[in-house]
Write a structure and sequence with these properties.
Elements lengths: L13 H13 L4 H69 L3 H60 L6
Helix pairs in contact: 1-2, 2-3
């Protein structure tokens, strides 16, 4: 027995003690070593289960952050398209304005200006969506880092306990 082991009296149902005694014999251990081994294994299993759950949560948060990043990139692409369209409309409207001679020509200019205004409004809406997505993505990344830190802290604490070392 190690010097830091503590003797404990424990009440068990008779059938449980019989099962532990049989398992101890199968594993070539004393009853005390069998109980200790099973208790340590239960803590390890709990740790592994907790670790898998935390890692799954981290992966889900990371996937959400990646999705948000892709949505931001998609919106940026749409905005680039809008800016290209706006530039083309602006150039065409300017050309039509310079060449306008009839009411129909001026109507085309006004239609171009109206379309340009719609593009600006859509671009402003997309900018707002982008800003919201970036804030949401950054919050998810903070959440992921918090989960990772909690997981690491729990892992270190459990390893300390399982190693039989006193907590720092």
């Amino acid at each position: 027995m190690a010097t830091e082991d503590v003797q404990t009296n424990l009440r068990l149902p008779a059938d449980l003690k019989d099962r532990l005694t049989a398992s101890a014999a199968e594993n070539n251990r004393s009853l005390s070593a069998e109980v200790t081994s099973r208790l340590v294994a239960s803590y390890r299993a709990a740790n592994e289960s907790f670790q898998r759950e935390m890692e799954a949560q981290v992966a889900a948060v990371l996937a959400r952050a990646d999705t948000l990043t892709l949505r931001v990139e998609l919106i940026k692409s749409r905005m680039d398209n809008l800016f290209t369209r706006a530039h083309l409309i602006s150039s065409e409207t300017e050309r039509l304005t310079n060449a306008a001679k009839t009411d129909e020509d001026f109507a085309k200019v006004q239609a171009g200006m109206a379309e340009y205004g719609k593009i600006q409004a859509e671009a402003a809406e997309l900018r707002g969506q982008t800003e919201k997505l970036i804030v949401e993505r950054d919050a998810e990344l903070v959440r992921m880092h918090t989960l990772q830190e909690a997981l690491e802290g729990y892992r270190q604490q459990l390893e300390t306990v399982l190693a039989g070392k006193p907590k720092p």
